[in-house]
Amino acid sequence: MSSLSCEDFFYLLGVIHVNVKEKINTLEKKLKAALASVENQAQLQEIKAEFLGKKAEISQFMKHMKDLPDEERPAFGQMVNEAKKRFSDLIEAQREAIKKAELDALLRKETVDVTLDAPDYTLGSTHILNQIIEEIEDLFIGMGYLIKEGPEIETDELNFEKLNLPKDHPARDMQDSLYIGNETLLRTHTSPVQVRTMLAYGGEKPVKIICPGKVYRRDDDDATHSHQFTQIEGLVVDKDTTMSDMKGTLLAVARHLFGPDREIRFRPDYFPFTEPSVEVDVTCANCDGKGCNICKQTGYIEILGAGMVNDKVLKMSGYDPKIYQGFAFGIGVERLAMLKYGIEDIRHFYTNDLRFNKQFKR
Ligand code: PHE
Predict the structure, then answer these.
(1) How many domains does the chain have?
(2) Which among 14, 131, 208, 284 counts the fewest CB atoms within 10 Å?
(3) Which atom of ligand 1 is nearest to the CA of 174?
(4) How many angstroms separate the alpha carbon of residue 232 from the centre of ligand 1?
């Protein structure tokens, strides 16, 4: 474009606008035709360079500016710039169209066929023992109790001595134990958690707790015995605690587990850590207390052991028995489940046979 063309000449005569306008029109038509067949971003870039790049014809027009008379320059500049803007809009519109087409194609490719068969997932369920523990926990939380847990390996002192079972006490035989060392054993009940709590409270604060957990005894496994089973023990220590508090609490437990019409009765029993001690029976839910095979014609089923906390136990854990009294109870979770659901062998709880476990889906 260094030598003078006839267009430059026309411009000098004042008709260049017409010619440049014509050129722009032609270019615009060419651009539209090129865009119509463009298929991807790379091709679009090439077209952009061709029509709007430094070497594009429209970019060359500006070089003529300086040859124009002053009064012509603004109109000429505006005309060229407007054309560049139109070209650019056309290209960008096409860019959007390509993007949309590409996205549509991708979505079509990735469409999920929702009519395909899904794999057969099976949901697990809470083990029946845990269901009963949770049910009992809910009841006691509602009555303002705290849930306390402790270690399964215990010291002889906390498992026995502080519960009024000194080394040579014959009642230790009630709980055949599994020793790990001279002074350590697998806990035979969750009562040591109660001792731990009383000691931690320092003989000052009232205690209102239940302690769920695994316990261990030296037993030969059969249909009704297991060397490991599950207990929930409870302890209340406060001022003015009486046996009728205990009775009301245990009646609530029996009704929560076996139905609103159940009654309970106490029979005298012996535990070294409680005095007096009782065995608690509930009226048989099967025959409503009339007598059947399940309750061996007695109308009652034994569900737990309980009693007023022995003064010696309170003292050893720092509570003054002249000021504080308490009651305690121990529930065997497997036994409860067996009574409630008519399960005839305790080993079913531990063998994880799905045919057994699946019967207790909540
Ligand atoms: N600790 C007793 C046991 O395991 C259960 C129990 C607790 C009995 C509290 C009475 C009072 O056999």
Answers:
(1) 2
(2) 14
(3) 12
(4) 9
Mark whether 280 and 212 lie in a shared domain: yes
Torsion sign over Cα 146, 188, 161, 181: negative
Q: Are residues 243 and 343 in the same domain?
A: yes
Close Cβ partners of 277 (under 8 Å, ≥ 6 residues apart): 268, 269, 270, 271, 305, 306, 307
Q: Beta strand 146-147 with 207-216: parallel, antiparallel or unpaired? A: parallel
84 plus 144 within the same structural domain: no
Check pLDDT > 90 for residue 28.
yes
pLDDT band at 6; cut points 50, 70, 90: very low
Strand order in the sheet with 184-186: 153-155, 184-186, 178-179
Percentage of residues in the chain having pLDDT higher than 70: 95
pLDDT digits (tens, 9 = 90+) for 294-340: 889 999 999 999 999 999 999 999 999 999 999 999 999 999 999 88
Mean pLDDT of the chain: 91
Span from the CA of 214 to the centroid of ligand 1 (angstroms): 14
- Measured from the Cα of 191, ligand 1's closest atom is 1
Looking at the fold, whether 56 and 154 belong to one and the same domain comes out as no
Cα–Cα distance between 337 and 129 in angstroms, integer? 7
Question: Which residue segment(s) compose the domain that 301 sits in?
Answer: 128-360
Q: Are 233 and 313 members of one domain?
A: yes
Closest residue by CA, ligand 1 atom 7: 330
pLDDT one-digit tens code per residue, 137-184: 999 999 999 999 999 999 999 999 999 999 988 888 887 899 999 999
Q: How far apart are CA 98 and CA 43, in angstroms?
A: 11
3-state secondary structure of 71: helix
Same domain, 140 and 273: yes
Q: What angle do CA 24, 28, 29 make, to 5 degrees?
A: 120
- Between the CA of 270 and the centroid of ligand 1 the distance, in Å, is 10
* Distance from residue 7's CA to the centre of ligand 1 (Å): 114
Nearest to 212 by CA among 230, 194, 196: 230
Q: Does this model's pTM top 0.70?
A: no
